[in-house]
Model the fold of this input.
Amino acid sequence: MGPVHVVARGFSAPEVFEIDASEIPHEQARFRLAVELTKKQLAELQTRLEHLAGDNQSEIFEAHIMMLEDPAVIDRVINAIAMRSQNAEYVFYAVMQTFLEGMRRIPDPYFRERTADIEDVSQRVLRNFTADVDSRPLGPDESHILVAYDLTPSDTASMDRRQLLGFATEQGSVNSHTAILARAFGIPAVVGLSCSVIDVTTLSSAILDGYAGKLILHPAPATLEHYRRLHAEKEKIRCALEATRDVSTETVDGHHLTVSANIELLEELELVTHSGAKGIGLYRTEFLLLNGSDIPNEAVQAAAYTRVARAMMPHSVIIRTLDAGGDKLPVEPLTEPEPNPFLGWRGIRVSLARPAMFREQLRAILRASGVGKVSVMFPLVSGLSEVERARDLIRRCMDELDHEGVPFDRQLPVGVMVEVPSAAVCADLLAPHVDFFSIGTNDLIQYTVAADRVNPHVADLYRPTHPAVIRLIKHTIEAGIQHGIWTGICGEMAGDIRLTPLLIGLGAKELSVGPQRVARVGQAIRSLNHAECSAMAADVLRQTRSYDILNQSLDIARKSYAYLLD
Ligand code: PEP
Ligand code: MG
Done:
């Protein structure tokens, strides 16, 4: 509950204002500075791309840099600032618009294509005028509910959480990484708002209800009162759960399940150790590797992985190798956008195509395995050959470290994420080659029912309890059992306590969930009877509708722990 703060970003016309004659040199200097900064960033991008992909691909940035060295552009802006007596960013914007207009009228397709390059460079320069503003956290200094058209995962990671009551975005869906991060930090959030952000005014008073997915503007006194009571009740349950964090997670009939945590950032470690999680079931390393301007080298990665492994001792940490692409950050700026990013250059495909980068990550993981209990797993595996190639690289890294006398775990457990339907269907073919399976339901659902996990228009089709999804989970777990390996679940489904009876019944051995969900899932497990869950899970395999499957699980959940359900 609190005032709203609306943020906007993107390539729109910057603010325009008159300047005094005495301010002209200052504005011209600001322009030169923004250009220099942009050139520097482009040169860095170029070097990074050369290193990763060779010369041809990096030429694009060469062309962008040349554009910023063209006197026709630079002098025109410098002169226009003096002539128009307007702020530098606006003059730059206006000059570039004139260029673009001119080029769009040339019938030659080559020139028309170049307009995209000019737009790209212009956007970078404009961002660099406000670099100091942009690097500040998004919201104001007082408590507020942030409302935005969209937020990137890195926006979410860098928010000043002390003043943030919660956020709401017009775009996005509950399974986007922005939403996953919000859950990890316990930030109330609503994504995919049905109203338009431009209709929301800063400083309106509001209630953000993350349970029901509502942003209530200008609430009536009775509504405020209702939410105050709800808040007090939730706090009571949260405190009671905290007291249970060291209690073992066994069902009432003595069946043990591990509840571990998913992390994205090292900052979350404290939350995880506090949550009572028995290990980390998914460490999403893309946030470490792709957040800066360069991929951190082996030593930096090894230090981060070692820190996580040490903090979690005596429990184990499953480090997932880089999962770039799709809805996440790309590993390198692609020269043209992919028509289908989710079906494109993602996950292990990128790592196998960039062996030098992959090798650094694997060596760093192996180094950490010499210090704590570490496993490795690969994202977006679609078939056996990818596993074989990755294992081959691990063997080579082990040989190298052996020669260098660096200690590591020779028995490092190697697992795959089962998140592509082909991997689930062929789980029996993969199982003999790995030590464990971890089912990534977020992607498994989207690929099975062909509904984008971040697209609110198809959110209704994205059903975790779709019979096809449940059958794939069942098949994977059984293939694992037949080959003597265990299967865990690390997608968002694992943290949804309406589904805990179903996942236990299907035979999952580990549930890896956001740190804020650990205690709740643990308490749900302690309230359930394994035999009853197994009977229900066998029964739902005959059900035809997702709704009925959900309800069968929910019936047991309600009977066993109604007070924990949202
Ligand atoms: C998943 O797909 O379920 C998963 C855990 O991985 P991510 O959400 O990072 O794609
Ligand atoms: Mg995934």
Notes: Residues 144-238 form a domain with the Glucose Oxidase; domain 1 fold (CATH 3.50.30.10).
